[in-house]
Amino acid sequence: MMNRKKKLRLYQTIFLFIGTLIIMFTYAKKDDLGQEKIISKELEKKIQGKIKDQKTNEASTFYNVKYSGLDLEGNRYTILSKEAISSEANQNIVNMKDVFATFYFKDNTILNITSKYGEYNNKNLDMLFKDKVIALYENSELFAEMAKFSSSNNLLTVSNNVKVVDQRGTMLADKLVFDIKSKTLNITSQKDKKVKSNIIYK
User: Fold this and answer.
1) Does pTM surpass 0.90?
2) 161-178: b or e for each residue (b if 16 or more CB lie within 10 Å)?
3) Is 138 in contact with 202 (CB distance < 8 Å)?
4) What is the tens place of the pLDDT at every residue in 156-178?
5) pLDDT at residue 37 above 70?
6) Spatial strand order in the sheet of 194-200
7) Which domains does the chain have, with CATH numbers?
8) Are the C-beta atoms of residues 74 and 106 closer than 8 Å to each other?
């Protein structure tokens, strides 16, 4: 009689243990499925992508950067930036913050340009200045939102809310083109759709 009771208890214990294991695995599987619903594969990929981009950006970010060289006309220049990031789309492009550029011309005149943002192409030497652009040349001061320097054409094209202040007074324009080689300045107005001034700087 005692042996039979012991056997029944043993069987009950075994069944209870097996049942507990089945319940544990079942709930664990449900939790895994539930977790997949909360964090989908797409969201996981996005998170991993952002982490990867962040690591890439950190790896390609440089501080207190300085480039210097000669343009195609032989004029010396330097361009400095507090922060620079290499472009993934084009390895020749460097995106900059807090930009300060200086052009030293052969006639011993100097052009200084500052801007909040900028781009520098270390292959063709072109430069782009954006947001709060300020240029100083001789006794003239220029304000604008964008300026582009083309090394191949040796032109500095300034646009968007252009304002020139010098000894002769203040002038407003839509676009200004400074030919560095010939030292001529063309100022155009979108309102009149024609060149308003052609000033020769000596």
Assistant:
1) no
2) ebebeeeeeebebbbbbb
3) no
4) 999 988 988 888 888 888 888 98
5) no
6) 61-70, 76-86, 93-104, 110-121, 127-137, 140-150, 155-166, 169-179, 184-189, 194-200
7) 70-200 (2.60.450.10)
8) yes
